UniProtKB/TrEMBL annotation:
Transmembrane segments: none annotated. PANTHER family: TWITCHING MOTILITY PROTEIN PILT (PTHR30486), TYPE II_IV SECRETION SYSTEM ATPASE (PTHR30486:SF15). Belongs to the GSP E family. This is Putative conjugal transfer proteinc/MT3759.
Amino acid sequence: MFSKYKRQSATAKPVTAAQPKAAPAPEAQPKAPAPAAATLRKPAARTKAEAAPADKERKRKERMGEIKIQLHRELLENLNLAALERASEAELRAEISSIASEILEERGIVLNREDRQTLNKELYDEVTGLGPLETLLQDDTVSDILVNGPQQVFVEREGKLQLSDVTFKDEKHLMRIIDKIVSAVGRRVDESNPYVDARLADGSRFNAMVPPIAVDGSLVSIRKFKKDKLGIDDLVNFGAFTEEMAAYLQAAVSTRLNVIVSGGTGSGKTTTLNALSSFIDNAERILTIEDTAELQLQQTHVGRMESRPPNVEGKGEVSPRDCLKNALRMRPDRIIVGETRGEEVIDMLQAMNTGHDGSMTTIHANSARDGISRLENMIAMAGIEMPIKAVRSQIASAVNLIVQASRLQDGSRRMTSITEITGMEGDVISMQEIFRFQRVGLTPDNKIIGHFTATGVRSHFSERFRLWGYDLPPSIYEPTVMEAR
Ligand SMILES: Nc1ncnc2c1ncn2[C@@H]1O[C@H](COP(=O)(O)OP(=O)(O)OP(=O)(O)O)[C@@H](O)[C@H]1O
Ligand SMILES: [Mg+2]
């Protein structure tokens, strides 16, 4: 039954020979499904009755896991991987299923139809994809995947983290998948090189850290790539900000204010940056610089750059700063840096100050004020010795607007503040908040109650907006409760 996908040399060797310990037939017999019995038991026996199906399910999963590992090993030994690359998906699925049947038959393992289908899918995912992660990667409702060792895989759905029922057989299995991902991008991860950043084939962002630095087994984080990034309208519909705020942001981006999106991990910084970029005129030349290319700009004239970490020998690094310096020679109208986190801050601020106004970036900070301190720290860390007042005045003249993105405790993501930088007062950078999210309480099921409001302060840039043709009505600055959709 093995065909062209089978390794030629392997034909001589009986399949079973590879596996000295065949699964004993009795254990392999499908267990008679008797869950109905559990419901007939008397109330007194309830705890036991409930435990039984769970236990059974666990055993079934364990057994399936073992069969899968054995079959997978044999499949890899017997498949002609070179021929496999050229096979169509349907061909490959049929092939895997027929090889699996053959092996199961030889072992006398009988599985019901459902288990067989699951097994075939899992084997296909193991051979061609990323094993247990594959189902989660294909599930569009999952936005983040977080693996804490082989037995614990969390996923984020609609802003909420939940434990999934996906597991790996053991640490070795998990490591094999990690290896598969990183070797595809020419990287390596092992004890001496215990963490790595990579991008999956579909554009998802991937980070892994392996033992011994990861104490309880490898840690993996995946931010799934969204084909259709959330746009301004989506974000307004989700209640991330209001139409009035969107109109203000449109004026700010179109009139080329320099904008920083600030926020914590996973707070929606990149999503906001991407949505804001939609306000940029199509005629402008935009250059983007990211560690992992995530932005999806809709304009025609876009040059994308991705910085590169050093290779295994510590060579070949192209830092965000290198990209930024080079970008300045490439005649951009605007520069967008995915995240500013290090010495590139100097060049970013300089770019913002010298003709590339309308540039944008994100920083990791919890408020506008905190964002400014972060920028000051980054400048200090970059080894620039400047009096603090000079640093601040450089920041104050470069940055016009800080948009704060937050992931609130109920999992919702909102633009909790829009703050303008208006200049310096003495040694201090002066700012004014224009819009904010006002929390007022919590529902019994822990949903946040609140509303957006303007602060009553008129924009420092309103004259600029007017001159550029963005005549915002004064009413949008009135401190009334704004309707979020
Ligand atoms: N307002 C929103 N409503 C619902 N989902 C959102 C919203 N904003 C962002 N998301 C989703 O939240 C996830 C994290 O968003 P994003 O990548 O923009 O965060 P980030 O702050 O850039 O994260 P990181 O710090 O990891 O770079 C994504 O899956 C994104 O689609
Ligand atoms: Mg991001």
